[in-house]
Request: fold
Amino acid sequence: FFSEESMGEDLEEDQGSLIWKFYVIVTAPFAFAFWLTTPDCSEENRRSWFGVTFVVSIAWITCISYVMVWMAIEAGWTF
Reply:
Protein backbone atom coordinates (compact mmCIF):
# COMPACT_ATOMS: atom_id res chain seq x y z
CA PHE A 1 0.00 0.00 0.00
CA PHE A 2 2.72 2.46 0.94
CA SER A 3 6.05 2.86 -0.71
CA GLU A 4 9.17 3.28 1.39
CA GLU A 5 9.79 6.64 -0.24
CA SER A 6 6.46 8.11 0.85
CA MET A 7 6.85 6.73 4.35
CA GLY A 8 10.31 8.27 4.63
CA GLU A 9 8.98 11.66 3.58
CA ASP A 10 6.28 11.54 6.24
CA LEU A 11 8.83 10.60 8.88
CA GLU A 12 11.08 13.53 7.93
CA GLU A 13 8.14 15.93 8.20
CA ASP A 14 7.10 14.53 11.61
CA GLN A 15 10.56 14.80 13.17
CA GLY A 16 10.36 18.58 13.37
CA SER A 17 6.90 18.69 14.93
CA LEU A 18 6.13 19.36 18.58
CA ILE A 19 4.38 15.99 18.89
CA TRP A 20 7.50 14.18 17.66
CA LYS A 21 9.69 16.02 20.18
CA PHE A 22 7.25 15.15 22.99
CA TYR A 23 7.26 11.52 21.86
CA VAL A 24 11.06 11.37 21.88
CA ILE A 25 11.28 12.96 25.34
CA VAL A 26 8.70 10.56 26.82
CA THR A 27 10.09 7.39 25.24
CA ALA A 28 13.83 8.09 25.58
CA PRO A 29 14.15 6.78 29.18
CA PHE A 30 12.36 3.56 28.23
CA ALA A 31 14.42 3.09 25.07
CA PHE A 32 17.64 3.61 27.03
CA ALA A 33 16.58 1.13 29.74
CA PHE A 34 15.59 -1.47 27.13
CA TRP A 35 18.87 -0.95 25.25
CA LEU A 36 20.87 -1.26 28.47
CA THR A 37 19.22 -4.44 29.79
CA THR A 38 18.20 -6.43 26.71
CA PRO A 39 20.92 -8.15 24.65
CA ASP A 40 20.64 -7.60 20.89
CA CYS A 41 20.52 -11.14 19.53
CA SER A 42 20.18 -9.98 15.92
CA GLU A 43 23.97 -9.72 15.70
CA GLU A 44 25.71 -12.86 14.50
CA ASN A 45 27.99 -13.23 17.55
CA ARG A 46 25.03 -13.00 19.98
CA ARG A 47 22.60 -15.44 18.34
CA SER A 48 22.84 -17.78 21.32
CA TRP A 49 21.53 -15.06 23.67
CA PHE A 50 17.95 -15.36 22.35
CA GLY A 51 16.79 -17.02 25.59
CA VAL A 52 18.13 -14.19 27.74
CA THR A 53 16.55 -11.64 25.41
CA PHE A 54 13.22 -13.44 25.67
CA VAL A 55 13.30 -13.66 29.48
CA VAL A 56 14.34 -10.01 29.88
CA SER A 57 11.56 -8.95 27.49
CA ILE A 58 8.98 -10.90 29.50
CA ALA A 59 10.32 -9.29 32.69
CA TRP A 60 9.94 -5.82 31.16
CA ILE A 61 6.39 -6.60 30.02
CA THR A 62 5.60 -7.83 33.54
CA CYS A 63 7.00 -4.72 35.22
CA ILE A 64 5.31 -2.28 32.85
CA SER A 65 1.98 -4.13 33.13
CA TYR A 66 2.19 -4.09 36.93
CA VAL A 67 2.84 -0.35 37.01
CA MET A 68 0.01 0.34 34.53
CA VAL A 69 -2.50 -1.66 36.59
CA TRP A 70 -1.30 -0.07 39.82
CA MET A 71 -1.71 3.41 38.31
CA ALA A 72 -5.19 2.54 37.05
CA ILE A 73 -6.22 1.34 40.51
CA GLU A 74 -4.85 4.52 42.11
CA ALA A 75 -6.68 6.66 39.55
CA GLY A 76 -9.88 4.72 40.24
CA TRP A 77 -9.62 5.30 43.97
CA THR A 78 -8.78 8.98 43.46
CA PHE A 79 -11.58 9.80 41.06
